[in-house]
Design brief:
Helices cover 13% and strands 37% of the residues. With 115 residues, it is mainly β. It has 2 domains: 4-57; 62-110, no CATH class. Strands 1-4-2-3 form a 4-stranded antiparallel β-sheet, with no helix packed on it. Strands 5-6-7-8 form a 4-stranded antiparallel β-sheet, with no helix packed on it. A hairpin with a 6-residue loop joins strand 5 and strand 6. The longest helix is centred in the middle third of the chain and has 8 residues, at 42-49. The chain is globular. The chain starts with a strand and ends in a 5-residue tail after the last strand. The mean pLDDT is 86.
């Protein structure tokens, strides 16, 4: 599924597919107001259907072996931009459910761009 504006007329289909979707507010940033479909209550879903949200396919984070102890760390790559230009690339590494940076070996990691 491509990013798609949430429309009330798609409510029945979106509710059926919600466990594979992520809902984000159009005017939000970071994780504010964002919901994983598998965690939604019907009340919150009804609020989402009122508009101002997009539905995206839920994509789990990739994992890489980052330590000699065999522990895998999840990661994502972030592009920090300002004025339409990328200022910084960084990878975030973590274990568990959230990017809390308290994981052994977790935190920010450099991203090397090869020509």
């Amino acid at each position: 599924m491509q990013d798609a504006a949430v429309r009330s007329e798609d409510g029945a289909r979106l509710w059926q597919e919600r466990k594979k979707l992520f809902f984000k507010p159009c005017a939000g940033f970071g994780s504010r107001g964002a919901y994983r479909g598998d965690k939604l209550t019907r009340r919150v879903f009804d609020d989402i259907l009122r508009g101002g949200y997009v539905a995206q396919a839920l994509v789990p984070p990739a994992e890489r072996m980052a330590a000699d102890d065999g522990a895998a760390l999840k990661f994502d790559v972030r592009n920090y931009a300002y004025g339409g230009a990328v200022q910084l690339l960084a990878a975030r590494l973590w274990q568990g459910q959230t990017t809390n940076f308290r994981s052994e070996g977790g935190g920010f990691a450099p991203v090397i761009v090869l020509p």
